[in-house]
Amino acid sequence: MNRELLQAIYDHRAICTAVEQRQEEQALELWEEKARLLSQAESAERSAMLEALSQSLYDHILRVQGAAPVEFRHTSREMYTRTLPQAALVGHGAEMIRQYIRRMNEDGRQDDHIRMACCYITTHLSEPFTLETVAKHVFVSKCYLCRMFRSQTGQSFSQYVTAQRLERAEHLLRHSGLSIDRIAEQCGFGSAAYFATTFRRRNGMAPSAWRRQLRTQQKAG
Q: Which homologous superfamily does the CATH classification assign to the domain defined by 112-220?
């Protein structure tokens, strides 16, 4: 694979910067230009490009804002292991960019205390903490923080924390060789048994089975 193609697949810094600055038209133009380089590529390479864009956007927004929309972490997950025509690559990537910009515009109106709380949660996922711990960190009452979480994220505090921990766990299952016990520890689940129960409730299977299925799909692709 030549250097230009590799850059098209994995380097999305210019697009991320345009999204951060809410420059939707520029971000879409950059995306379409990069996507054209893969017009004759294999479907697997287009899938890799879409996954790389998703990961790059999430990581970039998380870094510059201190929090990122958890529901977009795997927006295109179902596409990663499927046949991906060129038109679908362009369309899914463009919609991902629009969603991020819309969500960032909404987050611009978000309560600063919620933003600080989300940042604290993201950086302390491996540690045990409570609603009271986070409320003290952002200088508000437990009741206020609980109410604001529900109104501004659509989730309770505990639901949000669990979702963040599961997102990190899925990332580690996907991209690392860490044991299930170690992943449970790094994601703050307390025990591998509790991690497995929580993970199964969301994904319909145990973490080890999910990892095996993912690797089987990747080999098949």
A: Homeodomain-like (1.10.10.60)
Tell how far CA 181 is from the center of its chain: 22
Prediction pTM value: 0.55
Lowest average pLDDT, out of 47-51, 77-81, 159-163, goes to 77-81
Amino acid identity for residue 45 in this structure: E
Domain boundary assignment for the chain = 3-107, 112-220
* pLDDT tens by residue, 193-218: 999 999 999 999 999 999 999 888 87
- String of b and e for 111-135 (b: at least 16 CB within 10 Å)? bebbbbbbbbbbeebeeeeebeebb
Integer Cα distance of 23 and 126 in angstroms: 35
Q: Report the half-sphere exposure of 215 (CA within 13 A, side-chain side).
A: 11
In Å, the largest CA–CA distance within the chain is 57
Q: How many alpha carbons lie under 13 Å from residue 120 in its C-beta half-sphere?
A: 19
Q: How far apart are CA 182 and CA 203, in angstroms?
A: 19
Q: How far apart are CA 127 and CA 130, in angstroms?
A: 10
Instruction: Enumerate residues 6+ apart whose C-beta is below 8 A from 47.
Output: 79, 80, 81, 82, 84, 221
